[in-house]
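ok so for the tutorial part 2 we go from a plain amino acid sequence to predicted structure tokens. step 1 is just haveing the sequence, like this:
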Amino acid sequence: MKLFEKINFRQPKYMLPAILYIPLLGASYFIFDLFNVQTAEIRDKSLQTTEYLNPELPEAQIKGGDGIGTKYENMAKSWGKIQDHSAIDNIERDEPNQVFEEYESQYTEEDLALLDEQKQEKESAAQAADAAAREQEALAELEKALAEARLKA
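step 2 — the prediction. this is what the tokens look like for a chain of 153 residues:
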């Protein structure tokens, strides 16, 4: 009993854990309850359930008409059917029934003119800043020369 008589339970280092113990227990209970996961009652035959890490990959469930296509089909759809080792043969051949991707600029003439204007404004602002910096340097040199002249006189 002498041990408990030596401890002053009214000090904050003893009182604070005693006060926070019950709310922390309650909060941890609600957090664990929130993430409580149980197995599903209806079992899907295509799914696998394991208790540990599963080193075996399940088979992909790809349907026949998923729209992905093979590498060759996608290449032929985008670039046309290539029949030789270099694609140069297809350059001058026109096949009107196949639709290929067209690469055009997405900018209109107005957008291009606006971009040119902004570029010119930026260049003129940079030139004005350079001129102001040169003027400041010249002014600093003049002040320095004037201070030296005053010291000599």
